[in-house]
Amino acid sequence: MLTVKILGLQYPERYVVRRLVAAAQQELLSKCVPLELEISEVTDPGEIGKYAFVLVLPTLVINEKVVCSGRFPAKEEVTDWLLEAAEEIKITTTSLP
User: Fold this and answer.
1) Do residues 7 and 51 make contact, with C-beta atoms less than 8 angstroms apart?
2) Which domains does the chain have, with CATH numbers?
3) What does the pLDDT look like over 42-91, one tens digit per residue?
4) In this structure, are residues 73 and 16 in contact, taking their beta carbons and an 8 Å threshold?
């Protein structure tokens, strides 16, 4: 399961990023790449500050890695980031003894 955090003070900005993540997940599902996502939204300025310097514009964090901050990503970018994170998990779990 991938953990996705959407950081931002304003609801509309978080909503847009949440919809992009959902659309990317649906696109991957249509290509027979099922991904389980745990999506959370972070609105606390102190918590946001741990990941990004920008509080007003959204930040997207996948598996504790900041992938986008201070702008709205394209759906294709989100799709690529989700695939990369899934591959990292697969590589990590298959390399364990």
Assistant:
1) yes
2) 2-94 (3.40.30.10)
3) 999 999 999 998 888 999 999 999 999 999 999 999 999 999 999 998 86
4) no
